[in-house]
Amino acid sequence: MFDDVHLSTILSTVVIFLLMIVVLNAILYKPLLSFMGQRDESIKSDEAKVKQDFEKISTVAEELEKIKQSTREEIFQIKQRAVEVARAEAETEFNKKKQELEEKMSNFYLNLEKDKKNLEEELKTHISEWKNTLNANLKNI
User: Region 110-136: what's the mean pLDDT?
Assistant: First the structure.
């Protein structure tokens, strides 16, 4: 059965096989493994960059939310100050108008009192004339 198999053929086949492994290892396997290692490193670095970018985006989103909140608070404070200023101005204007009206009313009462006194004096001075005229008119009746 193994009559046509010679030791030299087996040795030459083994040597050729080992040479082929060495050549293929140098030409094909090492560059392929090196390329695959570089590719794995590139993928890992890309994943790390994506994670960093996601973290940056998350922090930026948080900062934006903080800015929005602080802006809302600032707007609320500005509105509150504006309302307070408007109230103070309105109250000041109201008090001025109230004081003006009180002064006008006071002047009106003073003038009314003066007019009342003048009318009373005029009536007192002319009362005797009116009495005489009234008596004359009563006698004529």
Answer: 87
- Taking CB atoms within 8 Å and a gap of at least 24, the contacts of 100-106 are none
Distance (Å) of CA 72 to CA 8, 65, 76: 92, 10, 6
Tokens representing residue 9 in the block: 């053929």
Which residue has better confidence, 137 or 100? 100
Q: What is the mean pLDDT of residues 110-128?
A: 89
Amino acid at residue number 91: E
Measuring CA to CA, how many Å separate 78 from each of 38, 71, 73, 75?
58, 10, 9, 5
H-assigned helices in the chain: 7-24, 30-140
Structure tokens at 4: 């046509």
- The pTM (predicted TM-score) of the whole model is 0.45
